[in-house]
Structures are given as C-alpha cells and as structure tokens.
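Saturday, quiet lab. Running sequence design on the structure tokens for the scaffold JK sent over.
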C-alpha cells in the first residue's frame, strides 16, 4: 500500500494500459485495480442534495492524548517490513 500511495499516478497509467494491480496490506491481498472496459456499467454516485460542501464541513477538535502517534507509526512500519 505504501508503494501505491507513493507512486499512484504511475500505477494508474499502468492500469490505463490494461494491467491489473493487486493491492496488498502486509502481504494480504485486499483489492485489485483493474481497467474499466465498459464505461456504461459504471455507477457514479453524487453527494446527497442535503450534503454540505466540503469547505463547510466543520473540522473536529484535536484529541488530547498521551499516546505518541509517531512512535506508533514507526512501530507499524517496522512490523510491515
């Protein structure tokens, strides 16, 4: 997933050329990126008419915690290698 995030544009170009890409989370397959062959079968959902524009959605207040999130992130990244 980290590689997908870092090189998303490159992967999307490969899918556009017809490749299928497997997405793994710690070596567990979770999804496939596949080219769209039949655009008519796509369903695009629009936001509900009552949904506020994103710029008007309030940002939640920061959570006060004694947990070092950077340490947790580094630990998770070490585990995934």
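Result came back. Writing it out in full:
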């Amino acid at each position: 997933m980290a590689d997908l995030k870092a090189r998303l544009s490159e992967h999307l170009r490969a899918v556009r050329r017809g490749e299928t890409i497997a997405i793994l989370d710690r070596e567990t397959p979770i999804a496939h990126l596949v080219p769209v062959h039949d655009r008519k079968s796509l369903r695009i959902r629009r936001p509900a008419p009552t949904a506020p524009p994103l710029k008007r959605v309030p940002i939640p207040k920061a959570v006060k915690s004694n947990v070092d999130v950077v340490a947790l992130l580094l630990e998770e990244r070490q585990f995934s290698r």
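Notes for JK: Strands lie at 21-25, 28-33. Residues 2 and 25 are 9 Å apart (CA to CA). Ask whether to fix the surface positions before the next round.
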